[in-house]
Write a structure and sequence with these properties.
This protein has 126 residues and is mainly α. Helix content is 66%, strand content 0%. The protein has one domain. Helix 1 packs parallel to helix 3 and helix 2 runs antiparallel to helix 3. It comes from Shinella kummerowiae.
Length: 126
Amino acid sequence: MRLIPKDVESLWTLFTAPTIWALHFLVCYVTAAVFCAKAGAPPFSFEAMRLALCAVTLVALSGIVLSAYLAWRQWGFGSGDPPHDEPTRKDRLLFQGFATLLLAGLSFVAVIFVAVPLAFIEACQP
């Protein structure tokens, strides 16, 4: 029994991981910018903001891992070696699964790079 049906895999799955990364990027940088712009009277501490952004990062990474799993499943769990260049529906789906898997890996690394400053910045810089 599958938790997520196979018909979920479409061309839209190709954009899922980069979209999650872009949203994560916006949330992190907008939150930090607004917090630091209101440094005189923020409604919560810098540590609270950092923990909230860490939670957002974990949610984003989880979504990307799910996207990668769906892509790996669409690719046939790695059973078909690239290139998938035959003009058949099967090769198109295998190529799309492989491309989505690569984009998910890139997006995973990009989310980590966006989150790295959370570990090093201790307060807003003037």
